[in-house]
Amino acid sequence: GIYNYMPLGLRVIRKVEAIIREEMNKAGAIELTMPVVQPAELWQETGRFEKMGPELLRIQDRHGRDFIIQPTSEEVVTDIARQEFKSYKQLPKNLYQIQTKFRDERRPRFGLMRGREFIMKDAYSFDKDADSAKASYQNMAGAYRKIFDRFGLRYRAVAADSGAIGGDLSEEFQVIAATGEDAIIYCPDSDYAANIEKAEALAPTHSRPAATAALQKVSPPGKTACADVAELLGIALQRMVKSVVIATDSRNDKGEVIKTQLHLLLLRGDHEVNEVKVGKLAGLADFRLASGAEIEAHFNCKPGYLGPVALNQPLPVIADREVALMADFVCGANEVDAHLTGVNWGRDLPEAQVVADIRNVVEGDLSPCGKGKLAIERGIEIGHVFYLGQKYSATMKATFLDTDGKPKPFEMGCYGIGVTRLPAAAIEQNHDAKGIIWPDAIAPFTAVICPVGADRSPAVKDAADALYAQLLGAGVDVILDDRGERPGAMFADWELIGVPHRITIGDKSLKDGRGESHPRRAEAAERVALATIFPFMEQKLGLKS
Ligand code: ATP
Ligand code: MG
């Protein structure tokens, strides 16, 4: 998870940074840099020094004082604000840096995609009230759209969960790629898009059907997985209800667990639990999965055969919206090798205490926008905009004097872009069997000139040199391949590197006064008169409209 940025890669990173910098400046943000190594005291003020897990790299200096390597910079920037912004007259402000970050990721992988040391653009806005903070947030969300449009990648801005802060002001910018880690939910018939944590599974519109079957115990031996039980019983997975047991711990002042409460979540057999949604229910903010031993002690039965009927001891039952409307369903019997069929709410078990949306949406669910059905695609998160409110300013007592002369905590927002993740995402989205296909805007070079046989033919060398000088002069980021490689090897290298435009100049075509243009995405090369190759390239590269 720690890398050298080699010359070609660094050129890409610099172009990404330049686009970000230009648009951030245009949006009114101001660049600074904050330390990579930061004093622990600031992180102790917000409690993150203790609370953040091992992802936060903690180090000590020669005097045994604690420091951290910045994974992000809310504490330091809030400290800057409380020193520098004394009055509402100095607000709003948006400060950003393009800087090295370190996160001791549990699973660094896919190279720059999830590194431990990486470059992030992080910005932080400071406002005098919530309305103005929301305007700053929208301003950044707009700037992000401009930035991502300029990268030349296919992306979606998706609504994301804003955690304990609440409100709807959190969006992720996702580059669409089949290999992406994140599931993006969208509606093909509207502009609704959300990540899987956030996307709401609407309450079904139908009412619960009447019970038709009698309660029966069946014994499909050794089957615990819902799918296996359904297959054995010859029923659809949608008729099954699965049980997930979670636990909440109450602690005393010393942080010791004094009581553990188990809760039973019920989901349709083909649905998956959504932990973010569960964590938002009353009293479940700090839930965890129950252990096998805890489950056995409570249910007097091994996990795999659990259900909400005939409970050994009562416990709170939380049914997904879909489950609450099921009739004649199948679930575990709280007995090894036994399941119940024909189970009905109200008759065989009391109605669930809580009915809520606790599942991930699936393809084909009705869209919350009311305009169609949900579809799913994969994405790579490369940016995130987030309204923070007073989360950091209140705990760090970062205040300014408001119009009434009274101190008030700043209203904040934070905005990140994964600068080094972006090239990795661009490659995932744009490649073929021969190698990378860079979008023009972030390619290490926009164009390459490949002279064939320049060592034998002064005419080829002269023509290549002249075109190179002309394109350079016009501000094209062009490279001349003067290594003297054979054409096959030369072309294969540039296809692998992914330079979007290649111009070949060889003896044969030069005799008719022509060269060849071969865009990386095109099937074949196009012969172009040498005299017109410069205007031709100018047009291809969009230098002339
Ligand atoms: P993830 O869920 O992928 O771990 P995150 O939610 O932790 O990301 P943020 O804290 O929002 O990420 O950071 C802002 C941006 O920094 C992300 O959108 C992503 O592009 C980038 N980023 C985060 N972690 C890494 C990493 N380990 N390597 C490279 N880029 C990263
Ligand atoms: Mg992360």
Can you tell me about this structure?
The protein is of the alpha+beta class. It has 15 helices and 29 strands. The strands form 7 sheets. Strands 1, 5, 6, 7, 8, 9, 10, 19 and 22 form a 9-stranded mixed beta sheet that branches. Strands 14-12-13-15-18 form a 5-stranded mixed beta sheet. It starts with 6 loop residues before the first helix and ends in a 5-residue tail after the last helix. The structure holds adenosine-5'-triphosphate (ATP) and magnesium ion. Residues 72, 103, 105, 114-115, 118, 120, 381-384, 416, 418, 420-421 line the site of adenosine-5'-triphosphate.
Secondary structure category: alpha+beta
| Helical residues, percent | 25-40%
Q: What's the number of extended β-strand segments?
A: 29
Rg: 30 Å
- Cα distance, first to last residue? 43 Å
Number of helices, where a helix is a run of at least 4 consecutive DSSP H or I residues? 15
Give the rounded overall mean pLDDT.
94
Largest β sheet strand count, sense and barrel closure = 9 strands, mixed
- Strand % is 25-35%
Shape annotation: globular
